[in-house]
Design goal:
It comes from Haloferax lucentense (strain DSM 14919 / JCM 9276 / NCIMB 13854 / Aa 2.2). It holds the Pfam family HTH_20. A two-stranded parallel ribbon has the order 1-4. The chain has a two-stranded antiparallel sheet with strand order 2-3. The protein has seven helices and four strands; from the N terminus they run βααααβββααα. It has two domains: 110 residues, Orthogonal Bundle (Arc Repressor Mutant, subunit A); 77 residues. By secondary structure, it is mainly α.
Amino acid sequence: MSSLLPLKPAAASVRDRGLSPLLVELDDDDADEVLSALSSATARRLLAAVYDDPRPASELADALDTTLQTVGYHVERLVEAELIEPVTTWVSAQGREMAVYGPTRSAVVLFAGAERTESKLSSGLRTLVAGVGVTLVGSVAVQTLWTARRPQVRYAAPAPTGPAPDPGLAEFVSAFLAGPGALVLLVGVALAVLVSLGVAWTQRRA
């Protein structure tokens, strides 16, 4: 009968599944579970095997030259640690369904040190500096345009007795703070801070 024929659909590759790497710092809370699941050489060989080719527990036992009971034990622990998961199902010649296990991440990286923290901080700082810089340029442009289009009040004034002084930095700052440029700068800086925090948070969860 056709229903008793072995069915072995191919499991999607790591790239096709769009998996991301798992980065585990040794002092993270998740490190204990991951290290415990990978403490056995058999578990590490099993994880490497499903990266090479997702397969059910019975074929993993044959590939590792060990018992199905041993593979079942390590499979359960690796699933609990979220290092592997069922990715498809095969049907044996006897009509029995078998879960096919594959990796949950494109790679598993254990590391020690502050490299990741420094990377997050530097990335967030670069985003903040770039955002503030763009906002500053934009606010000055808005202030300049607003000043150029603002109606000028004309009134009679006594003739100057000497050369008229050029507008100084203090006058420009005063006009900037009283005009729309300051509002644009304030809103832009706030948005830059929020975006930089979002970048750091996203990288922390990666």
